[in-house]
Amino acid sequence: MKNQEQNVDQHLRIMHACEKGATGVYYGHRLVATFFYRDLIPTLTEMHAHEMEHYTIFSKLMGKRGVKVVFLPIVWCGGGIIYGVFTALLGRKRAD
Ligand SMILES: [Fe+2]
Questions:
Q1: The domain containing residue 20 runs over which residues?
Q2: 96: helix, coil or strand?
């Protein structure tokens, strides 16, 4: 059974991976917006920056606690990009 500190560390790892995935989603949305929804690019860029901030915050916190990163953050980012591109291609409202 895990103690409270182990649970916190596990949740940090999960949130960190999710933030990396979110950066990918907005990257994918911006990529599609470049071709179809150019007016959304400033908003998507701002949202992407927020997710990068969140990722950095969790990275620093994990570093302070000595928590290991979930397997290859680039995989989570890549998954987010694929998801972001796919959902944005479904329509403007999906990328908005
Ligand atoms: Fe976030």
A1: 4-95
A2: coil
Tokens 């470049």 found at: 34
Q: How many domains does the chain have?
A: 1
Tell me the C-alpha to C-alpha distance, in Å, between residue 50 and each of 10, 27, 43: 23, 12, 11
Residue 57's nearest CA partner among 31, 23, 82 is 23
How far is the centre of ligand 1, averaged over its atoms, from the C-alpha of 67 (Å)?
Answer: 19
How close is the Cα of 22 to the center of ligand 1, in Å? 6
Contacts of residue 5, defined as CB under 8 A and 6 or more positions apart, other chains included, come to none
pLDDT in tens, 30-66: 999 999 999 999 999 999 999 999 999 999 999 999 9
pTM above 0.85? yes
Contact 36, 50 (CB under 8 A): no
- What is the amino acid identity at position 96? D
